[in-house]
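Researcher: Please predict.
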Amino acid sequence: MTSISRRTMIRTAAMAASGTLLFGQRPSARRAFALIGDRYHNADYIRVPLTKMFDGLDVTVDYTISYEKLSGETLRGYQMFVCLRDGMIWPGGYLGPDAYTAYEQDLENKSDFPPPQSQTWLTAEQAEGVKEFVNGGGGFYSLHNNSHVSLSQKAYRDVQGGAYIGHPPLRPFKVHVVNSSHPITQGIQDFFVNDEQHYVEYDKDRKYILLEAENVDGLTYQNLGSKSIAGWAYDYGRGRVVFTSPGHTIHALWAPEYVKLQKRAVRWLIKEL
């Protein structure tokens, strides 16, 4: 029978009382809080590729679509925050099931429904909670359209590092590794995806940029050219932040080199790399 010291018992009891220990979980287990899903990004399909990202990394992930659960208090029980969703909610509803189908065109009474109106969901308190979490040592992995959330709160943008501009329709583009010396990108090769090429306004020092997306056919977006910043990583206080922009489709999230990069990003965020 394994002997358990009195000190260990006291420490374990204290962690359980504070809410940082779940039943059956060892005290050292890593946990991630994942906020996913929005009108344009079904939460089920997001969870499928993110499960592949976390596979084999010994991280317990709690997924939610409930944006109101995001708070500094909630994040205290975690080592990592993952977000793949935009900053909009639609309290008055919208015709669907999503914006990319002709569903509403076939409704006999579509004129009975008002035009959809979006609102932002992130509050100043939530943004400060994320900032406190990362500044205190937590890891934050922001993926794909999560840069849109930065448009609604300055504190969130300061942590996340930039803000969404827009994107062209789905089309192939190449993701270049522009800093191969970072622990996240070491050994990662350039890769192609057929995805939304997101254009973002980047706020931090350019030395933190890891990835650049390029439409190699020369197709542009607005007046922003054929290239866009596609990923960065930096320390923020005692914590760490990573952003990577590909991710509208499963086949983009599951591009083999991208999966390798995502796994390395998680390990870097939890300070295993």
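Model: The longest helix spans residues 256-269.
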